């Protein structure tokens, strides 16, 4: 399983997230405010409001696509800076 600490704060962030889950062959869940949500349940994720930090857990993925996926997430500015942010209470 791969884990990423990401944020979805704006409409454009949610749009990029939706494009990502369609573009890449991935499956898993997100952990938002101590709640686990299927990563494809965009309406439930959006109902949480702007998400400053959530853990994206990939349980199924194509290893060869991971560099491209990580590049996509970096270009979309999804990543939170783990060096300056305490994420211990998120998961």
From TrEMBL:
This is Uncharacterized protein. It comes from Blautia segnis.
């Amino acid at each position: 399983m791969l884990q990423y600490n990401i944020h979805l704060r704006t409409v454009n962030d949610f749009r990029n997230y939706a494009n990502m889950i369609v573009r890449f062959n991935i499956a898993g869940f997100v952990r938002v405010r101590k709640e686990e949500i299927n990563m494809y349940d965009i309406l439930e994720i959006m109902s949480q409001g702007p998400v400053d930090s959530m853990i994206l857990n990939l349980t199924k993925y194509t290893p060869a696509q991971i560099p491209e996926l990580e590049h996509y997430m970096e270009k979309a500015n999804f990543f939170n800076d783990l060096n300056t942010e305490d994420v211990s209470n998120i998961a």
